[in-house]
# Entry
Amino acid sequence: MKRYNILFLCTHNSARSILGEIVATTFSGGRFVGFSAGSTPSGVVNPFAVEIAGELGYPVEQLRSKSWDEFAHPDAPKIDIVITVCDAAASEVCPVWVGMPVVGHWGFEDPSRVLGDDTVKWAAFREVMEGLRARIERLAEMPLENFNSAELRHAIGELERL
# Structure
């Protein structure tokens, strides 16, 4: 079974894309390795995302807010799939990715902007995590090695509707 590298993008790389990295790595049965980056990274990973990583057994020390430029270099990990998780990142002009990965969009509201107490904020983070989980698990079940780029792009787009 081929292993795929998925890069999740959002503007600040502090919450949604970080959750994508965590979920792709922990809920794909070894099918995916998740990475994350942002167009204008905040430099800080949201504490709720860090706590979720710890709960799921993801190595918290690997989490950091970083620029998507890190993945545009020839010596960067080869990315097979790029998924934007915020509408702002989806509308930005992305770098030219080495290897020409398939690009898709799964939009989520920013859980770090939710107002309220920690219970309300936790619920927002868990909602994004579960949305990502549902999509990643479905994608991991598909015969991706049999898909051409257009078919893979279509499959990723269909998962946006979950």
